Structure prediction request, 55 residues.
Amino acid sequence: MFIKRDLTKARALSQSAEQQVKEETERVIRDLLQQQALLDELDKSSQLEALVFNY
Prediction:
C-alpha cells in the first residue's frame, strides 16, 4: 500500500520535474533565438556602417 502511494508520488514529481525542464528549455531557446536575431541585426548594421565609411 505504501509502496504504491510512494510510486504514484514519485511519478507525479518526475512528471512535474520533466515539465519544468521542458518549460525552462523552451525559455532558454526563445532567449537564444532572440539574442541571435539581435546579433544578426547588429551585424547588418555594422556591415552597412562599413559600407558607408568605405564609400
Q: What stands out?
A: The mean pLDDT is 93. Residues 1-55 form one domain. Residues 17 and 23 are 10 Å apart (CA to CA). The radius of gyration is 24 Å.
